[in-house]
Write a structure and sequence with these properties.
124 residues; alpha/beta; three-stranded parallel beta sheet; two-stranded antiparallel sheet; 2 helices; 5 strands; 39% helix; 19% strand
Length: 124
């Protein structure tokens, strides 16, 4: 048997200012962005373990830290946390788990204030 690879990705990005966030929206966005990743890895796990070496790549996002994306940022942050946890959990099985993101050059990011990791936000 050869190695098995698995890439997971889900996306939805509702735009809501913090004061306007519908409290049902985060649950729906979290379910859409996290449950498919869990289900896909669970489905592939038996074969990945049997192969003795495999890779999971979770596609994350650079939109974390963009204004008016509370639920989406939470979902993508959780996916990064899943990745780190699964990497530790599966390290002894020959399964590598990592995440990646591509630079977004879309309308979504144009002119929107972005937290740059310092003490202020800037439009990019």
């Amino acid at each position: 048997m050869g190695s098995t690879g698995l890439s997971t990705m889900s996306a939805t990005c509702g735009q809501q200012a913090l004061g306007d966030v519908d409290l049902d929206a985060p649950d729906a966005i979290l379910r859409l962005n996290l449950l498919p990743a869990i289900r896909a890895v669970q489905a592939a796990l038996p074969r990945m373990r049997a192969n003795g070496r495999s890779r999971v790549v979770n596609i994350c996002s650079l939109t974390v830290g963009i204004a008016e994306r509370t639920a989406y940022a939470a979902a993508k942050g959780a996916l990064v946390s899943f990745t780190r946890t699964w990497a530790l959990e599966l390290a002894q099985t020959g399964i590598t788990v990592c995440s990646g993101a591509r630079p977004d050059r879309t309308e979504l990011r144009r002119g929107i204030p972005v937290f740059d990791g310092c003490s202020h936000a800037s439009a990019r």
